[in-house]
Amino acid sequence: MQADNVLKRNTRQKSAIESVVLSSSDHPTALTVCERAKDMVPGLSLGTVYRVLNMLVKEGVVREISVPDAPSRFDKTTRTHAHFVCTVCGELHDVEVDEGSFLRHAKERCIGDEIDEAEILFKGLCADCKGVKP
Amino acid sequence: MQADNVLKRNTRQKSAIESVVLSSSDHPTALTVCERAKDMVPGLSLGTVYRVLNMLVKEGVVREISVPDAPSRFDKTTRTHAHFVCTVCGELHDVEVDEGSFLRHAKERCIGDEIDEAEILFKGLCADCKGVKP
DNA sequence: CTCCTTAACGATAATCGTTATCATTATCAT
DNA sequence: ATGATAATGATAACGATTATCGTTAAGGAG
């Protein structure tokens, strides 16, 4: 007997997708994960990537980062939760903020509610695009 | 002569939409704004609501709040930027956090990048849903 | 006040990321 | 090896939003 929200068979596609995400440091989209995993599993379909990615998110192995007006990014789970997106090129990276004290600060002014998590997204120009723009 | 990103004619639909947003304190979606504005402008279409709402966002009169896996919410512009969404009922409200010091904190660890804005979304159970859930 | 230009409208098709469906394939306990 | 069925790939469907386009109506000129 097994938990019913977990994949029950090991497949080439699942391990390919998992290894791509675990070895990527650039927060790829589902489409990018699919392209990369196709090196190992040629006929891989985007639907399967989404399905497996969602499983991995449920399992806590992978994290999904929602970006307004852009496809979600996927990343191996680490402590960090804050991110920075470049509004020009779309590049996205972690920001190591002290989320703990910020959450505590927020909870103090949300009496009654139960805050479970915080999504923090900074927007602006990345170092590269800043340099290019006059 | 006028700026070319601004509506140039006063219409019943624009003033209805604007007055609905300005008088709503519950962060309505475009669909909700449309329903409410229909009291004043019966045949109002959702496409027009989106068009006008986007204009108002550009003008800075209205703010758009992106919510993952849910339609955007619209709100009259005030100082606050942080929000709380209930993962059960979808209720959304402002959270008065000290965003200034948090932004300063973040900028210190994003050397090279230019942070223009922060989107901060807390997720959890609102007071009502917390009470209902055993 | 009427006419005329054209901004803005309503209806509807299109887009895009993501999810659901479903017949086919392939995993793995027997 | 075989069979039950989980997982796949292809494709249709979805929901939020945007674009298109023929029609309507602001609002300035006469």
Question: Could you give the topology of this structure?
Answer:
The structure is a homodimer of 134-residue chains.
Chain A: H1 12-23, H2 30-37, H3 46-59, E1 62-67, E2 70-76, E3 82-86, E4 92-95, H4 99-108, E5 114-125, H5 127-132
Parallel strand pairs in A: 3-5
Antiparallel strand pairs in A: 1-2, 3-4
The first copy, chain A, binds a DNA duplex (30 and 30 nucleotides) through residues 7-11, 13-14, 29-31, 43-48, 50-52, 54, 69-72.
For the structure shown, list the relevant keywords:
homodimer; 134 residues; alpha+beta; Arc Repressor Mutant, subunit A; Dna Ligase, domain 1; 2 domains; 3-stranded mixed beta sheet; two-stranded antiparallel sheet; 5 strands; 25% strand; DNA-binding
Describe the protein.
The structure is a homodimer of 134-residue chains. Chain A has two domains: 2-74, Orthogonal Bundle (Arc Repressor Mutant, subunit A), CATH 1.10.10; 79-125, 2-Layer Sandwich (Dna Ligase, domain 1). In chain A, strand 1 (62-67) and strand 2 (70-76) form a beta hairpin. In chain A, helix 1 packs across helix 2 (30-37) and helix 1 crosses helix 3 (46-59). The radius of gyration of chain A is 17 Å and the shape is globular. A three-stranded mixed sheet of chain A has the order 4-3-5. Chain A has a two-stranded antiparallel ribbon with strand order 1-2. Chain A has helices at 12-23, 30-37, 46-59, 99-108, 127-132; strands at 62-67, 70-76, 82-86, 92-95, 114-125. Chain A has five helices and five strands, in the order H-H-H-E-E-E-E-H-E-H. With 134 residues, chain A is an alpha+beta fold. The A-B interface holds A 66, 68-69, 72, 82, 84, 86-87, 95-98, 102, 105-106, 109-110, 112-127, 130 and B 66, 68-69, 82, 84, 86-87, 95-98, 102, 105-106, 109-110, 112-127, 130. Strand 5 of chain A pairs antiparallel with strand 5 (114-125) of chain B, so a sheet runs across the interface. Chain A binds a DNA duplex (30 and 30 nucleotides) through residues 7-11, 13-14, 29-31, 43-48, 50-52, 54, 69-72.
